[in-house]
Amino acid sequence: MSAYKTGKLIIEGKTKQVFELLEDRTLCLLQSKDRITAGDGVKSHQLAGKAAISTATTAKVFELLNQAGLKTAFVRVEGETSFIAKKCEMVPIEWVTRRLATGSFLKRHPGVPEGFRFNPPLQETFFKDDANHDPQWSAQQIVSAKFKLNDVIIGQDEYDIMNRTTLTVFEVLERAWATRDCALIDMKIEFGIDANGEILVADIIDSDSWRLWPSGDKRLMKDKQVYRNLTTVTDADLTTVKRNFEWVANQLEYLVPPPSSKVVIFMGSPSDEEHCNKIARYAATLGVKAELRVTSAHKAPAETLKILSEYEGTGEKVVLVAVAGRSNGLGPVLSGNTALPVINCPPVKPDNVQQDVWSSLNVPSGLGCTTVLYPESAALAAAQIHALHDHLVWSRLRVKQLTNFITLKRADVRLRN
Length: 417
Ligand SMILES: Nc1ncnc2c1ncn2[C@@H]1O[C@H](COP(=O)(O)OP(=O)(O)OP(=O)(O)O)[C@@H](O)[C@H]1O
Ligand SMILES: [Mg+2]
Known about the structure:
alpha+beta, seven-stranded antiparallel sheet, five-stranded antiparallel sheet, elongated, binds adenosine-5'-triphosphate, binds magnesium ion
């Protein structure tokens, strides 16, 4: 139990209790139970240790989503079996995303073979109503219900934001699981509206929320489907289910790796430092570390190549950015002497851009450096290269695109009203 003073029980469901927190009324405590249920609660068993595994799983998943830049209700773990979250009024919808067809989808769509692949992932919504077995709802039904939660009415714009956020959450988790050679087949999440009217990914995300098939092999499934599939439930079965859940929680330890992607920004002159700092700051927001070096390919070519060899020798994953004003010898010289990607980002001024940019663009044969003009573009280009191997950088880029979508939508809503 929490060291915090809990207030009254706000709500109790099948798998957890939600308590008010007396210290801060905008937060709540989600206390997990040692209980596993399926079929709208028809099947239900006590499973010692499940609360702790579920809490550890949710905490790791939300840590990953928060690191990617997604807005979630998760605040922090509080004891082994509970965590603190922003107190929300919950949107009574289950947001489901599917990469492969399986389970209930096959029953609702006869003729589609199991394993049919959805590109982009398929999205479905279900109204949370145990008594009626959570019926599937269309966007029109959700908007027409006019849910009012913490003074926010769920309209088309809110639906669009949640729908797109759901897709991003799925993609982020799918990429993360892929690093463990595990296929995320489908996923269910819920949203809440907090006291500030913010739309947050809320509730929990644990082994009850998804299907996970190691190596993409259904027979190896590690999620709650194993429990759902049981007709009789023995102690040995429950032990297997628990072992699977433990395996998932352990794998999650590897899904938030320390930052490893790096950009090294070479500048031809210290006078370009501010331009380089801008690139470094943008890179940091995308989860890419930056290092700044000063060296002139014109005045000290041997030194430039010596510095280059430092980075080639470490075996790190590095993208180079060359910042040189007037005639840019730096980027092309680097590019001609390394297999690392080189991005030119010359600090051009409006009055000389026409002339100076040509030294970055019109390079000798055999060179493959690319050129961008803005510090933000250089950081984004470097991050997109790193995203090929670093799922956290990929996730930051994806969430940045989601954030752009939401920002534009909010601006449009403001002008419409
Ligand atoms: N951050 C939050 N703030 C307020 N309520 C929350 C929050 N996160 C989850 N809840 C709510 O806590 C309740 C209890 O959760 P639980 O998962 O045990 O319910 P359940 O029996 O599974 O039923 P349900 O089908 O509604 O999930 C749910 O109604 C859920 O929406
Ligand atoms: Mg629930």
